[in-house]
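hey so i finally got around to running the thing on that chain from the lab meeting. sorry it took forever, my laptop kept dying and i had to restart like 3 times. anyway pasting the input first so we r on the same page abt which one it is
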Amino acid sequence: LAPLAHMAATMIGVGEIFVGEARLPAAKALAEAGLSPVTLGPKEGLALLNGTQFSTANALAGLFEAEVLFRTALVTGALSTEAAKGSDTPFDPRIHALRRHAGQIETADALRGLMAGSAIRASHLKDDERVQDPYCLRCQPQVMGAALDVLRQAATTLGTEANGVTDNPLIFPETDEALSGGNFHAEPVAFAADMIALTVCEIGSLAERRIAMLVDPALSGLPAFLTPKPGLNSGFMIPQVTAAALVSENKQRAYPASVDSIPTSANQEDHVSMAAHGARRLLGMVENATAVIGIELLAAAQGCDFHAPLTSSPALESVRALLRAKVPHLTDDRHFHP
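ok and heres what got predicted. didnt touch it at all, straight out
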């Protein structure tokens, strides 16, 4: 509420506003912008300080970015499967029809479609001595599918919240009544934000395990650290370590905010949702997980390069072409940061 109060105060000409690098009194800044301070009517001041709306907006921002993250991780996951010469058998629809989770079924379909027509996959359909792939490859439908189901539940909750009334007290003019209640309590938003945080953490965690698998020749069958000529930069060793660090940070951030309630005053506010805390962390978590997915894209494309002249599916080759237009194949060990 306090940050919202500072923001809303500037609208009535109180406090300070940054105009470029200059820090001006709010009234002066408004005047220079050709604006007049707002004159608030009944209940409008309280409405501007409604923390539930702040929490909902931040949770929605995190949700929208998590949706992009999810779709991208499906692509990089399929590409990593190709790089490791993994199997698409775990994506067979008959397997997932027996469990019937919608997200799992759809994720398996998407992964199978991404790998359709792959010459790399066709090259090891017979006489492959391996029985099963690591979990990070074959359990993608179960993990990512569960994430999809949870993201959809969070989206449903936040959609309902965004179209609901969270003011208090509520005025019912048809009966000329003012009813006090608790619609301002953001517990639904807090739960939704915690759910989004869990999915973002797990999407990144699964991707990091795929990166770790790719850089390990014992697991992937590829050159160590994905470099044909080892050098001082150690190939993909440090990118994998970076991914692991980002995942660890997200694990710490994923602790549920909704289970923590600190009373904010000595009167009636004896249980609060902590939804603002839960929602504010989401964009940072997605940024971390997106970096992990970026590292996986680099590693998976590099792994597929070693299978030349065999190519992946048309869908995944289009992704590799987009990447290679900006990032060349790692031939001689080089500084990765740029």
